Amino acid sequence: MMRWSCELERQFTRITLAKPDLRRHTDAMSFGQQSGPPASQKQTAYLLSLLEAEGYDFATARHRYGFTQRQARGKFTVSEASDMIDRLVAQAEAGDTGEEIVFDDPKAIKAQQRIDAERATLLRGIQAEVLADELERRGWVVIPPA
Which sign does the torsion angle of CA 98, 117, 80, 76 carry? Predict the structure, then answer.
């Protein structure tokens, strides 16, 4: 059995007080950092106006458009804002065709598939009469199958 000694105490102190190797933590970009210059206020305001025309703000558009947490706070790089503005302008010019938005981000695609599956599961559990009453209350015309 080893006895506690002054030498052992010095080794323990040296080990516990040693500075960690920070090089491996700073090689990559820090969490939440932008990967380019920030978008101008005009670009951000224009993007917000386009989103508001669709009925969203940055936070509520997060899941619909696949924004990150940083982007949901209104922090965009120049290229991110430019890409999103181009996408929203093209969508507005195409008009509302009723088609769903096609996501480029695999995380957004997976999230949308999960939401669609949850909706389908939820609708399967609702009785037809209850669903028909709710649709009529919202102004829809419901015709039972013949």
Answer: positive
Distance CA 23, CA 17 (A): 17
N-term to C-term CA, the chain: 88
Residue 76: name the closest of 127, 42, 116 by CA.
42
CA distance linking residue 65 with residue 88, whole number of Å? 10
Q: Which residues contact 131 (CB under 8 A, 6 or more apart)?
A: 123
Instruction: Provide, rounded to the nearest whole percent, the portion of the chain with pLDDT above 70.
Output: 71
Q: How far is CA 101 from CA 37, 58, 76, 84, 104, in A?
A: 28, 17, 21, 13, 10
Residue owning tokens 């940055």? 58
Q: What integer is the mean pLDDT of 42-70?
A: 89
Site of tokens 């102004």: 139
d(CA 32, CA 25) in angstroms, rounded, equals 14
5 or 78, greater pLDDT = 78
Tens-digit pLDDT profile for residues 67-88: 888 899 999 999 899 999 988 8
Going 89 to 92 to 116 to 119, the CA torsion angle's sign is positive
Q: State the CB neighbour count (10 A cutoff) for residue 127.
A: 8
